[in-house]
Amino acid sequence: MTSPIPLSLAVPVIAFVGLVTLARRIVLHDTLIDRLLNRALGWALLCLVLWQRSLAPQHFSLMHQLSMGAIMMMNANLYGTAKLWAGAEPDTARARQWRYDLVGATTVVGILLAGTAARNDGRLIGALANWETGVAIVLMWIPLIACGRLAWRVATRELRSDGLATHERVVYGILLAAMLVGCGGLLITVVEFAGWRTVDDPMLVRWAASNYSAIFLGSAILAVPLVVSLRSRAGWDRSGRACRKLEPLWRDLTAAVPGIVLAPHTRVGSDARLVRMTVEIRDALMHLHRYVPAEDDTGQRPERYARLIARAIMAKDHGSDPSPRHAGHRTVDTGDIDSDVRQLLELAHVWNRDRPLSHLPGAKARGPRWDAVRGT
User: Fold this and answer.
1) Mind listing the domains of the chain with CATH numbers?
2) pLDDT tens for residues 308-317?
């Protein structure tokens, strides 16, 4: 057997990394950091496949060295990401990334040159404690340690900060664990190379196991924002649930005052949808408040306010003129979007429960447009 990881373990890991890579390229590929992370995932996936040297046993030594090269190209993209996380200027990121990629490619060439004798002899570079292994360790681990040191500093800084969401803490925690796991192969190799202990590992299972584990953990990290984004798009998160509760009220109000709708709604995240619905409902309430008689324009409970807004909709629909005078109105505009949402949810709860439009005289004469709006 030339592959250090059995297929029963390798296939699920490769499938998982491949699925995360493909899904992220479809869903999360807009920002520079996401693109760098997706490129890193692509190199990681190639590395995992190359570790399955039984796919081409006659070239198993070359595949091993190419898998090391794939790790270095993955590291180049991760280093570029870590620099951005650390506060590097995004405008110069493209130029910097060219340099990081060049360093990675140069390292790949160095590994292939140092491994020439190993390829000719049909053995794995790193299996013996010789100069080839020493060169490979130096070429690989100087960039890897540089990237890991920077990523460790950023992750620990973020974990110490306040206001991190739970899923963000999970991400940084797994990131630290992945870096520790990735160092396992290096430590064993250093012990062997120093002559402290001889390790019988001709297939370099220690390297493959640490790489597979670290890449799996890294993919799990990158799957977290993917799941968060998919939940947001599907409306399963907190903002999405709020949007669903506000939608009947929003439909009624925007049907009554269509001019306040900013533009056709596009496919955006639930947070953006919630902010937009809040603004449009608030604008509609301000417009409809002109149709509330001045004597009724006082602070009200949500139940009474819902009935007044329903009467204002009926008055506007019947062609009534706006009231020439109205006092300070009870519209939702606290200057705090969270407070606005809470107040609107109270109003929407009453609106959805009592259906005030259906209780007003003449509601049935509003036509099929209003039946559709009310969902009846």
Assistant:
1) 7-234 (1.20.1070.10), 238-374 (no CATH)
2) 888 888 888 8
